[in-house]
């Protein structure tokens, strides 16, 4: 049986293998690390690690039709630390996600995920399981205010001296090489180096028809836009939306109260091929429609009186009323079958001129009506058809040019604007109502997020929405709001750094040790509030995880480092204190299974044989009705192996130390070969 790797994918190795298939001559060996172990007072042993690498000079020559001498200048975004950031994105990690049932809500049934820890690690761990499965990524990363370092624990944020040396502005002795030191540029470099690997990996989990929305302010908008052009492609830029959130009357020059929402498609061609068109319902449509029907009823069926009452209703509206955007829908229909139906009289003239010319008789006077100077929009047969359908609106006599009835209920949706206003203070007020005053500063408005999430997921009400800068949990709140409103089953995946709250903050005083704790409590309370207010049956739970070191013990030792008495210390490959559920989720990640899959625990080999209720016997985890069965017991009997094989799973995994001889391992393979030959069997 083979062993599972139990690490995140090594993207560098995968890329090297792809290049090697095309250009085997450019593959070379390179030293990657050395390990020195001292096992006596007098002797040390050094292990050297080699791996395949690429000779980039040879590769450049392979791809050139001339002799390559030096690097080519080209348009690109560059900064000191970019190569290190690229390396960080590709490097594998030996970490895992450990489930935390105590912090979870409805752990066994929920489809939502909450992860606390560094989002770079989280994205690396998730990229196999969620490969191409996320419909929408929304992020609100830390805005770059020029502070020395970010809370994210990357080793990119150099101090001023290191940045100047790295960027070539001083020599090895620290002497200035330029007259204008760009020390402030390091803040942009630090921020870009933090963002680059996260965005690079995140595109792996984005579906082909997926969308990324990133919130940002003026400080890094230009850099973020250029960075996303590089990573997702400039052709996939959908729009940059401006969110005007308030006014700053104390500003010296201009009140800068806006943020940007930079929107990219994973593949805009896939969106177009799928017929995707983002539309939202016009505001106050139901209110306008009701006013039209009311005017007709109060008029006693008098068309003139009905329109007079309807126009009076419009005049009484405040200038800021949301219905004002549809104020051209100012008539009510008197046609049999749809009295009181709201419409606006649309133009029937041919755009640009040159339309058909023909006489059209007024239905009351029987004389030809006035004809538009540019000709009719409709051909005679189509015009007659629309007259019979009651869609042509004639004036009181033939002196008026007829118009077309454009009904509001047929045009109640519209394309979204690229600029909108929503006061940010509403979000603070909403969060205060949930958690108390001063718990979290500057939360994003969940109602605004719901609006944009709805646009992206209109055709997919079961979409996965990921936010790897989770903050106070606004994204989760927005997802639950949407599901309650339309009966959808969208899922959220939130990642929040295990950032401690300030000891003097209201959050710390309220008992929240980390920002993640604030977000989890916000989700709990928001979910309960939504259900109480709407009665909707939605998923308000989440499986909570924390990022930790791998469950696998470090058993790598040189042969001459071990004494016979020490061998037993390295028999078990699992760290002490790790539970079977800890190991299970690491196996699921390693095998590319999503974290929300249902898990059933069986007990095999006790008095009851196979049972879901009894605790007797060996514990066996069954994931998603047989996508994976796992047993991590220290001793696995042939009866347990037989019971697992009879489940005919796609995958099976055991603890390697559970089998004491090669014969026992061979027996496991033979049992599965006979009873479930398609099962992939591995050990950890």
Strand residue content = 15-25%
What structural category arises from helix and sheet content? alpha/beta
Parts with pLDDT < 50 across at least 5 consecutive residues: 176-182
Roughly how many Å is the radius of gyration?
33 Å
How many β-strand stretches?
25
How is the biggest beta sheet arranged?
10 strands, mixed
Number of helices: 19
Large-scale geometry: elongated
What level of helicity do the residues show?
Answer: 25-40%
Overall pLDDT score: 87
The spatial strand order of the largest sheet comes to 4-19-5-18-17-6-7-9-8-16
Distance between the termini: 10 Å
What is the secondary structure topology, with strand pairs?
Elements: E1 2-3, H1 11-22, E2 27-38, E3 44-54, H2 56-62, H3 82-90, E4 95-99, E5 113-116, H4 119-126, E6 134-139, H5 160-166, H6 185-205, E7 206-216, H7 221-232, E8 237-244, E9 258-265, H8 268-273, E10 280-281, H9 285-299, H10 303-316, E11 331-332, E12 342-346, H11 380-388, E13 392-393, E14 403-407, E15 413-414, E16 419-421, H12 425-435, H13 446-457, E17 464-467, H14 474-486, E18 491-496, H15 506-509, H16 515-534, E19 543-549, H17 580-590, E20 599-606, E21 609-611, E22 618-623, E23 628-631, H18 638-646, E24 651-654, H19 662-675, E25 680-683
Parallel strand pairs: 1-25, 5-18, 5-19, 6-7, 6-17, 8-16, 17-18, 23-24, 24-25
Antiparallel strand pairs: 2-3, 4-19, 7-9, 8-9, 10-15, 11-12, 12-14, 13-14, 20-21, 20-22, 22-23
Helix pairs in contact: 3-6, 4-6, 6-7, 9-10, 13-14, 14-16, 18-19
């Amino acid at each position: 049986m083979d062993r599972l790797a139990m690490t995140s994918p090594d993207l560098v190795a995968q890329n090297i293998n792809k290049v090697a298939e095309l250009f085997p001559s450019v593959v070379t060996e390179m030293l990657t690390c050395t390990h020195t172990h001292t096992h006596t007072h007098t002797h040390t042993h050094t292990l050297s690690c080699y791996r395949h690498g690429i000779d980039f000079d040879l590769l450049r020559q392979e791809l050139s039709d001339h002799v390559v001498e030096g690097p080519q200048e080209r348009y690109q975004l560059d900064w000191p630390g970019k190569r290190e950031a690229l390396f960080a994105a590709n490097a594998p990690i030996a970490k895992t996600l450990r489930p935390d049932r105590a912090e979870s809500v409805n752990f066994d049934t929920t489809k939502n995920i909450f992860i606390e820890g560094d989002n770079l690690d989280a994205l690396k761990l998730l990229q196999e399981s969620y490969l191409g499965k996320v419909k929408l990524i929304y992020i609100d990363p830390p805005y770059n205010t020029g502070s020395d370092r970010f809370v994210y624990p990357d080793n990119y944020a150099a101090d001023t001296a290191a940045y100047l040396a790295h960027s070539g502005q001083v020599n090895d002795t620290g002497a200035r090489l330029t007259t204008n030191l760009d020390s402030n540029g390091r803040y942009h470099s630090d921020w870009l180096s933090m963002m680059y690997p996260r965005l690079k990996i995140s595109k792996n989990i984005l579906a082909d028809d997926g969308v990324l929305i990133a919130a940002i302010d003026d400080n890094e908008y230009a850099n973020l836009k250029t960075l996303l052009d590089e990573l997702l492609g400039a052709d996939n830029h959908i729009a940059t939306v401006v969110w005007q959130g308030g006014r700053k009357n104390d500003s010296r020059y201009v009140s800068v109260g806006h943020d940007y929402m930079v929107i990219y498609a994973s593949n805009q061609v896939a969106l177009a091929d799928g017929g995707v068109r983002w539309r939202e319902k016009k505001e106050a449509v139901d209110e306008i429609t009701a006013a039209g029907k009311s005017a007709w009823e109060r008029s006693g069926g008098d068309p003139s009186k009905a329109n007079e009452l309807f126009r009076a209703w419009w005049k009484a509206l405040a200038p800021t009323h949301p219905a004002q955007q549809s104020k051209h829908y100012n008539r009510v229909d008197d046609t049999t079958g749809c009295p009181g139906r709201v419409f606006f009289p649309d133009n029937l003239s041919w755009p640009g001129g040159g339309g058909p010319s023909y006489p059209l008789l007024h239905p009351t006077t029987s004389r030809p009506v006035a004809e538009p100077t540019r000709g009719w929009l409709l051909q005679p047969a189509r015009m007659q058809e629309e007259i019979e359908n009651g869609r042509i609106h004639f004036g009181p006599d033939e002196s008026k040019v007829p118009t077309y009835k454009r009904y509001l209920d047929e045009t109640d949706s519209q394309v979204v604007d690229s600029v909108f206003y929503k006061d940010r203070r509403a979000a603070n007020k909403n969060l205060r109502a949930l958690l108390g005053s001063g718990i979290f500063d500057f939360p994003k408005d969940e109602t605004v997020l719901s609006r944009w999430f709805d646009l992206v997921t209109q055709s997919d009400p079961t979409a996965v929405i990921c936010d790897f800068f989770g903050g106070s949990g606004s994204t989760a709140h927005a997802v639950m709001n949407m599901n309650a409103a339309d009966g959808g089953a969208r899922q959220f995946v939130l990642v929040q750094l295990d950032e401690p709250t300030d000891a003097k903050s209201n959050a710390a005083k309220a008992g929240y040790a980390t920002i993640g704790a604030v977000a989890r409590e916000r989700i709990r309370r928001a979910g309960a509030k939504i259900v109480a207010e709407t009665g909707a049956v939605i998923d308000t739970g989440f499986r909570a995880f924390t990022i930790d070191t791998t469950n696998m013990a470090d058993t790598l030792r040189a042969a001459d480092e071990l004494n016979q008495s020490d061998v037993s210390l390295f028999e078990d490959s699992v760290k002490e204190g790790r539970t079977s559920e800890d190991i299970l989720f690491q196996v699921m990640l390693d095998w590319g299974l999503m974290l929300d899959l249902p898990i059933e625990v069986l007990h095999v080999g006790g008095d009851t044989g196979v049972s879901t209720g009894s605790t007797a016997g060996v514990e066996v985890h069954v994931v998603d009705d047989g996508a994976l069965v796992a047993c991590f017991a220290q001793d696995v009997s042939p009866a347990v192996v037989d019971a697992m094989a009879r489940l005919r799973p796609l995958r099976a995994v055991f603890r390697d130390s559970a089998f004491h001889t090669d014969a026992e391992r061979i027996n496991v393979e033979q049992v599965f070969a006979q009873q479930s030959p398609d099962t992939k069997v591995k050990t950890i």
